[in-house]
Amino acid sequence: MDDLDKPIAYGRTAEIFAWGENQVLKLFHAWVGFDAVEYEYRIARTMQSCGLPVPQVGEIIEYKGRYGITCQRIKGISMTESLARAPWKILRYARRMAELHARVHAVTHPTDIPPLNPKMARKILQAQSLPARLREKALTRLEKLPEGHDLCHGDFHPDNILLTPQGEVILDWMDAGTGNPLADLARTSIILKGSIESGQIRHPLLKRLAHLFHRAYLAQYFSLRPGGESEYALWLPIIAAARLSENISELEGWLVAQAERGLS
């Protein structure tokens, strides 16, 4: 195939193209190295072996100096897009997202998945906008909290859940690792709350709905996996500190405030 058509979807690290009749090509941007692509490919194959609802992965290819992964083409829309069309389903979707997240965390000691905590520590060290005193406190707390050995998605939010006639499919496992599920839960909270507080969600009604979604998601998760609320709260400032390494300008002030409030 000499040329690809227009992407059918866009992401921070890649574009998605139709590839043959029943596949798509996740073509990573040129700045994403082969090691990162090979890592996501290995993760995807592991997820398949765990029986999780994920696209069936094909192969790694190189296309005009960029690396990509072919995988099963699944027809559906993201949970975010479905919520925009049918906001009255917000509680149903929040609870369903919690159920899916708990299902991910039920996978213990998965093979070929690296530990989450060392990666988190590196991200905290790389967060240039994080004050030095907060960096030290975040790393100290990270060392003290239980590490865990369960599967963590690392970027679990409604955009990464595809709704299909056959059921939900979980996408984008590039940040997956083994670790403490409560850290992964806190990561999702920081993503959701950040979108509300940073101005990414602007309309007052949509903000209220997003708060409702987050509260329902947490309530359902802890009903499925009781306990851990206090430890979850301890993870929040650590996750906020680590997220600063992603250099999302509109979130920086809010993330620093979260780290400050939770670590002081």
UniProtKB/TrEMBL annotation:
Entry coiled-coil feature ranges: none
**SUPFAM superfamilies given in the database record:** Protein kinase-like (PK-like) (SSF56112)
Q: Name one Pfam family in it.
A: APH
Name of protein: Aminoglycoside phosphotransferase domain-containing protein
* InterPro entries tied to this protein: AGP_Transferase, Aminoglycoside_PTrfase, Kinase-like_dom_sf
> The Aminoglycoside phosphotransferase domain covers which part of the protein?
24-217
